[in-house]
Structure formats: C-alpha cells, structure tokens
Specification:
Length: 383
C-alpha cells in the first residue's frame, strides 16, 4: 500500500517539475531572474542553517551564515554610498519584509509621524502601514508612474505639524518609474520639516541603480535613511529573498537583547533563512560590481530592442529612461497567459531580466503579430 502511495507521489512530483519547467521557459511579465546556478552549494541543503538574531552580533546558535550575510550587507551599503561607519542591515525573506522593516524603524523613531507614499507604490506598503497602524496619505502619481512632487509638497504642507515618513520607489511595479529622493529631501527642507525619514523601496532597480546614466538620486548620499532590494529579482535565487540597508545609529535605538539566542533582537522575524544569505554571497562573489553592471547593460539593450520591435508592429510601447521594463497596452488573454504578463488596468509590461534574450523577444513579437485579438476577453452575456 505504501509503495503505491510513494509511486503516486513521485508521479505528482514529476508532473510538478514538468509544469514548473514549462512555466519558467515562457514568462516575460515578472521581475525574476532564472539564469542562476547554485549547484556548488547543494551540500549546504543538508544542514538546518538558521540566521536567527542580528548578523553583526555573536550568538549562541552556530549553524548559520552570518559572516556571508554581513558581506552581502556591506556590498550593498558601499554600492548605496552609506557612511562606512554607520550602516547596518540583514537578508530578509523579500522586498515586503524589507519595506516593513524600513517603516517599522521610521515609526519607532517618529511615533506621531504621517506616512506619504504614491499610488504607484508596491501593494505591500499599504499592508505594512496597516500592520504598523500608522496614519498615511496617498500621493498622486505622474503619467509615467513617478510620484507627483507638486501634490506631495501641497499635501505635506497641510500636515507640517507632524513628522514625515516618506516611502519613495526606485522602480515602480508596472512602469519602473523612479522617484527622485533628492527632490523629496529638498521639499522637506523647504517646508522646514526636520523630523523626517525617507525609506526607498528599490526592490528591482536598486541593484543596478548605481550604473544608470544619467544617474537618478535614490541612495544614502541623496537623502535616504533606509533602502530595500530583492535578491531573487535581478540577481536571481531559487528562494525569494531581500536585503534591508539602514543606518546603524537608527537601528541601535530599537535594539533589544535576547538571552535565549545570546544576541540582539533587531530583525522582523526570529528564525531567518541562512541559505538565502549564502546564495546572495555566492552570486555577488562571482559577479562583483562589474558583473552586475554587465547584467544591467545586457538587460537594457534587450529592453531597447523589445520596445523597437513592438513599435515596428504598431504597438504603442514605451519605457522610462534607463528602465528594463517595456510598457504596452494590455494584450489578448492568450498572449497574457502564455507569456505570463502582469496586467493592471489597460497596461501590461515586459520586463527584460538578464535571462531574457532577443530570440525570446522575437518569439513574443511573432505571437503578437499572429494573435487575432488585441484585447483581453470581454465578459459576454449568454442571452
């Protein structure tokens, strides 16, 4: 009896593997890199690696990868021009947790603050604000997805008596628009709001933001107090992950000692995935800064090619400066399902991640040409 169950389960696993392989081969609508190879790290899957506690503090539990985690944090702290003696961070479960940490830190520093974020901000932000129970105001977005600075200034002006927590986005979900942190900082300075905190959600674009020409201000030197990125997006990982980088001086104000683990309680979750930190460390060691830059240049070149090809077949495609995301009108349901295109309202997009090739783009263009309908299926009445 048990052998039959095992055989049936194995069949299910084989089918699952086949389905995942098929789905992985044809997605263009989500920011996930799949060109990674961590096979050299397979042996580490035999161990219960748990990065509980603060990676910068020595703890009791030794089955961890804190040293690698610290190096990952240091790599991005340097890339984001943090002060060498005043940075801290850890590897999270993804961008949503990283954003939660930035907002949590801001709330602890300014308990009576108002949060401002644009309507193009990632959906996790609204949930995080609700979890933290902070009052908030949504700011309008410009047509390209960037925050409306005039609306931001007018709104903050009405609440000048409150500290301001501003959540900027460096690469919005649908249009990869980038909010200018230095403009936000200037507005706050102009309104004499000195009690403020700026968190930058740079989930996708932060990893290559330093290589953009011309540069868009988003990092610590530009005025950010914390920055979050995703590890599984531009770099790529079999497990979703993220990184939060903030100022150590701010983290010190909320740190609490926990005797059970012999470390400080400074992270959102207790147990943390030590394998993710190891994967990111391995990828960054292999790539380095130059490798990341080349990945970006390849993606940007593919995006330019994609936009050009779509325009050639009469599709009104466009992209923000330096973006690897190509925005287009929503497609037929057939195209949307096959290529797994994220769609919001009348807009869809193709994200040219490092693994996307011009051959794939050509196949996509061919499908667009041969597709009979250009819009998603409409609801039809049967009578």
């Amino acid at each position: 009896m048990s052998n039959k169950i095992i055989a049936k389960d194995n069949e299910r696993l084989l089918k699952l593997k086949h389905n995942i392989e098929q789905a992985t081969n044809t997605f263009l609508g989500y920011p996930v890199s799949k060109d990674f190879d961590y096979s050299e790290l397979n042996d580490f899957l035999s161990y219960p690696i748990n990065n509980l506690g603060d990676p910068f503090e020595d703890g009791t539990y030794k089955v961890q990868t804190h040293e690698m985690e610290k190096e990952v944090v240091s790599f991005f702290a340097k890339l984001f021009r943090a002060q060498p003696n005043n940075y801290w961070g850890y590897v999270t479960n993804g961008g949503s947790e990283s954003n939660l940490y930035g907002l949590y830190l801001a709330r602890e520093l300014y308990p009576k603050a108002m949060v401002y974020y644009s309507e193009s901000t990632h959906y996790s932000v609204r949930k995080n604000i609700h979890l933290l129970n902070i009052p908030s105001i949504i700011i309008r977005s410009q047509e390209n997805g960037e925050i409306d600075y005039e609306d931001f200034e007018n709104t903050v002006k009405m609440n000048r008596h409150k500290p301001a927590i501003v959540l900027t986005t460096f690469g919005t979900t649908m249009k990869e628009a980038k909010d200018d942190v230095s403009k936000i900082k200037q507005i706050l300075k102009h309104l004499a709001i000195y009690d403020h905190y700026i968190h930058c959600d740079a989930a996708l674009s932060g990893t290559y933001g330093a290589f953009m020409e011309p540069r868009v201000p988003f990092d610590f030197k530009d005025g950010a107090d914390s920055i979050s990125i995703s590890g599984h997006k531009f770099i790529g990982s079999p497990i979703p992950s993220g990184v939060i980088i903030t100022k150590r001086s701010n983290r010190d104000r909320i740190a609490k000692g926990i005797s059970y683990i012999g470390s400080l309680d400074t992270t959102i979750t207790g147990s943390r995935n030590g394998h993710s930190a190891l994967f990111l460390w391995y990828a960054l060691k292999k790539l380095g800064v130059e490798g990341l830059k080349k990945r970006y240049e390849h993606s940007l070149d593919t995006a330019i090619y994609c936009e050009k090809k779509l325009k050639e077949i009469g599709v009104k495609a466009w992209s923000n400066p330096n973006a690897i995301t190509v925005v287009l009108p929503k497609t037929s349901n057939e195209i949307k399902q096959k290529w797994q295109l994220a769609t919001e309202g009348d807009v869809a997009h193709v994200i040219c991640m490092p693994n996307v090739t011009k051959v794939q783009i050509d196949e996509f263009i061919e499908d667009m040409v041969n597709c009979k309908t250009n819009e998603e299926e409409e609801f039809e009445l049967d009578f």
